[in-house]
TrEMBL record:
Span within the parent record: 241 to 536 of 536
Role: General (non sugar-specific) component of the phosphoenolpyruvate-dependent sugar phosphotransferase system (sugar PTS). This major carbohydrate active-transport system catalyzes the phosphorylation of incoming sugar substrates concomitantly with their translocation across the cell membrane. Enzyme I transfers the phosphoryl group from phosphoenolpyruvate (PEP) to the phosphoryl carrier protein (HPr).
Protein name: Phosphoenolpyruvate-protein phosphotransferase
Enzyme class: transferase
Cellular localization per UniProt: Cytoplasm
Cofactor(s) the record lists: Mg(2+)
Catalytic reaction equation(s): L-histidyl-[protein] + phosphoenolpyruvate = N(pros)-phospho-L-histidyl-[protein] + pyruvate
Length: 296
């Protein structure tokens, strides 16, 4: 098994009936990349930027963020890199940023909600990203989107950041802005979110919000099942709507790295997954045994 997985690593993923599936990687900490050959993946589908915000020395400034993002983009070369704006709150509290004492942090001020509540902090991240975009194929992703207006507000702040940088004579560009689909209110009516440049399904949160079972409470782990038909239906709906609207759809939650769930994702029409780097070989091998079942 391990030998077969290793043999697949640097080859593009393909189903048994010849359908090409993009396999990208999730990155939580740029130092991980030093041990990974870019040839094993089609790009980076998710950079969780919380690592920058967890230092005891306070929130990262623009230069610290720019340097970190640039390093990741340079590692990837021409391949696409999706960097997610900070998803603080919920299971990821950040001292000095997140709001303490909320009765249910998973339903509180997390992700894009927190960023839009603190635009002066969000703007620093957007400026750093617009600058880093000069060094590769960058896309920006917004976590925990719930209503279309959140995309509009974030887009306006990104546009402002780009204009400011130009005025200051600092090289920058405006990357495409896409969203995580991880709140059922999005996955049920994805057509309302056509302002997004792409959809990336966050199955970890989509599962917890759909099944009303927290991702970090062991007693309800049995209910927290991404294979629940309701979760699969939301994924199918998101993939199909994306296809109709011409919006690329991928999935970056943990179920994409689990061979038990890959057949239902492929049958649902999904053609791109982003997984933890150690799972790439296993995922490519599992995909090679799945029939996508599309007519030739
Ligand atoms: C998800 O929710 O599936 C996801 C990829 O994001 P995170 O696990 O960082 O919340
Ligand atoms: Mg999430």
């Amino acid at each position: 098994q391990a030998v077969r997985e290793a043999a697949m690593l640097t080859h593009p993923a393909m189903t048994a009936d010849g359908v090409r599936i993009a396999v990208l990687i999730n990155v939580a900490e740029p130092a991980e990349l030093d041990r990974i050959d870019p040839a094993i993946c089609d790009g980076i589908g998710l950079v969780r930027t919380e690592f920058l915000f967890s230092s005891a020395s306070g929130l990262p400034d623009e230069m610290a963020q720019y340097t970190a993002y640039r390093r990741i983009l340079e590692w990837a070369g021409e391949k696409p890199v999706t960097i997610r704006t900070v998803d603080a709150g919920g299971d990821k509290p950040v001292p000095g940023l997140t709001i303490d004492g909320e009765s249910n942090p998973f339903l509180g001020t997390r992700g894009i909600r927190l960023s839009l509540a603190k635009p002066e902090i969000f703007k620093v991240q957007l400026r750093a990203l617009a600058r880093a975009a000069q060094h590769g194929n960058l896309k920006i992703m917004l976590p925990m989107i719930t209503i279309p207006e959140e995309i509009d507000e974030a887009a306006a702040l990104l546009d402002e950041a780009v204009v400011e940088l130009a005025r200051e004579g600092i090289a920058a560009s405006r990357p495409p802005l896409g969203i995580m689909v991880e709140v059922p209110a999005v996955a049920i009516v994805p057509e309302r979110f056509s302002a997004a440049a792409f959809f990336s399904i966050g199955s970890n949160d989509l599962t917890q919000y759909t099944t009303a079972s927290a991702r970090d409470i062991a007693a309800v782990a049995g209910l927290n099942d991404p294979g629940h038909p309701a979760v699969i239906e939301l994924i199918r709906n998101t993939v199909q709507t994306g296809r109709e609207l011409g919006i690329d759809v991928s999935l970056c939650g943990d179920m994409g790295g689990d061979p038990r769930h890959l057949p239902s994702l492929i049958v649902a029409g999904l053609r791109a997954v982003s997984v933890a780097p150690p799972l790439v070989g296993r995922v490519k091998l599992a995909l090679s045994e799945i029939h996508a079942g599309v007519p030739a």
